Amino acid sequence: MKNTLLTLLLFFSLYAKGDDFKAHFINVSQADATLLEFSKGVVMIDVGGELKNITPSRTSLNNYLAKFYERRTDLKKTIDVLIITHNHYDHISLIRDLSKNYSIKRIITSKFKLTKEVEKAAKNEKIKLEFMDYRLMDSLMPKGYEVNLGNLVTAGTTIPKLMLYSGEVSIKIKHTVNGHNFYPSNFSSPNNNSIVSKLIYGKTSLLFTGDLEIEGIEYLTAKYHNHLSLFDVDFYHVGHHGAENGTNKELLDILSPKIAVISAGDTAHRNGGSAFDHGHPRRAVVELLNNQASLTNRKQEVKVHAYPGQEVTPEIIDVKKEIYCTCWTGNIIMLVDSNGKYTVQ
């Protein structure tokens, strides 16, 4: 059985069929970079590198993309849409590498504390730059903002649907939503101004929450309190690299995911901004995921590491659910078909 599965994985890794897509969670150390591969195009979500130790991240991303486009020569080194969830170093720092080496058609991001790197890349390479904020989302409530991806797939096959539901929060005084009080201080960090992206592909759905922290999660769910079914998904890209303030039980119950993927860094790094420095992924979050009833059980438990806190030795725990982390296995690829069947490499 193992050999059969390996053969299938190798076959599928060569090329996604016309009615499949692949989600590549690239190991860029303590940072985020995800590539969504369709039959005729590419979407990327974030393009960061690890703070104060960017070389491994840069090498990993550049090598991965070089090999990807060697395989997909038909895509002509083009990225159709780049979503930068928010303007923090570990999500945007490799934008110049990307914009110089590849043709990016659109960048969508939050305007909150927009960095010069993003503006410069867009200006120099003549890339369309768009901004998401809650004023726009409120005007589209509850639909969200749809990014048209119809041209990224072969005619007659499943058309992916990419919806954006949040972005920059602009409040200057206390703001009450569905009985919850929010204050300007809750949104002083780019984290809580993150864009939330949902990809729907046939019967399959994925959610990316960027680095939303608890206040940002509560704001999102308060805004959409009558439409929480929008966030009922199959796959959850775990918020804020598996930080304790990026995922809670309430959110997981709303999402009811079957599988979770974390992007976090190497335990060997001890620099500022490393997984060790932040304590990512946090043990409490991995255990929360491990106890989530909706997550699919693994056929066999695996031992992984997680941090009980910041700047402490990680601990080994047993994972029984379909939880994956770039810090445990390196690059992660999910092959997904329109009927909801998936394979994880």
**Beta-strand proportion:** 25-35%
Helix content: 25-40%
Estimate the global geometry from the Cα principal axes.
globular
Helix segment count?
11
Main sheet record: 8 strands, mixed
Low-confidence stretches: 1-16
How many E-type strands?
21
End-to-end separation in angstroms reads 15 Å
Query: Taking strands numbered 1, 2, ... along the chain, how are they ordered across the largest sheet?
Result: 8-7-5-3-2-1-20-21
Computed over alpha carbons, the radius of gyration is 19 Å
Mean pLDDT: 93
Helix/strand structural class? alpha/beta
Can you walk me through this structure?
It is built from eleven helices and 21 strands. Strands 8-7-5-3-2-1-20-21 form an eight-stranded mixed β-sheet. A seven-stranded mixed β-sheet has the order 9-10-13-14-15-16-19. A two-stranded parallel sheet has the order 4-6. With 345 residues, the chain is of the alpha/beta class. 26% of the residues lie in helices and 27% in strands. The two termini are 15 Å apart.
